[in-house]
Amino acid sequence: MFLPPSKVSEVRSAEGSARFGELVGGDFWSGFDANFRKSGASQLNALRLMSYNSARGLEGWSVFCMGFDEFCAAKIDISNIEYDSLADPQLPREDWVERELSRWILMILTRAVDTLFIQIDDENSFAYKKLRILAERMPDVIIWKQEK
Fold it and tell me: Cα(48)–Cα(140) distance, rounded to whole angstroms?
């Protein structure tokens, strides 16, 4: 399960960790915590938690992308800052930022072997709008479920 920055911070606290354990109803392994990462998961069936920034090279049978819209918004913000530090940008800002975000999204969306679950909170977000368009174009591949 990939978590956005706000959830990583929350789960790192003792109180947040206890709440998360109750929420998932079982053991979990915090891959973003250096102490846990070195020892590996204590239980074979423990839910593995990772930050999106640690997604490279990982894969799972089923992958949950929580707060995907928050992750995308954060990457857009970071990419805009990085663009400002480029000596000689070869692309206009909007194109460069979209290219950088696309690289991350491609990496994230290819982590699942079988099933990918994407959770989005904000219907006005970049991620929601783009994924909604894809879902309409590919209803045989993307199952869109929305809470009423």
Answer: 29
Percent helix / strand / coil, the chain, rounded to 5: 50, 15, 35
Rounded Cα–Cα distance for residues 13 and 113 (Å): 31
Contacts of 123 (CB under 8 A, 6+ apart): none
Cβ(53)–Cβ(35) below 8 Å? no
Q: In this predicted structure, what is the pLDDT of residue 116?
A: 93
Domain ranges across the chain: 1-54, 58-138
Residues in Cβ contact with 122 at an 8 Å cutoff, skipping those fewer than 6 apart: 69, 128
Higher pLDDT, 41 or 127: 127
Which pTM value belongs to this model? 0.83
CA separation for the pair 45, 43 (Å, rounded):
5
- DSSP, collapsed to helix, strand or coil, labels residue 63 as strand
Which residue(s) pair with 30 in the sheet?
Answer: 49
Contact indicator for 127, 76 with CB cutoff of 8 Å = no
